[in-house]
Sequence to fold (116 residues):
Amino acid sequence: MSEKIQSAAAVLTVTDDTFAELVLRADRPVLVDVWAEWCPPCKAISRTLAELAEEFADRITVAALDADANPATARAYRVLSMPTLLVFRGGEVVASSVGARPKAALREFLERHATP
Fold:
């Protein structure tokens, strides 16, 4: 996992084993960043999401899932390209985004899906 995500307390790490508990049963929206170590755009977006996770901490949970280490979850949600952002609300995917985006676009994406 990238050092930035590990050092960002605001970003929750999820795995195949913890996904149902931490994402599907969450009582508020969860944005899951599906990434891979070999993916340069994933590293760039993870730094930005770590910053935004702190900004939105009271309204949405930002989580990271390493697709290579957790293939069952990546397959279950048909993640074919990375980075893929999935927003879950009530255990269902309500929005998604594929590819790197600038910080302003990511902030707008979070703003649309965060709890008011």
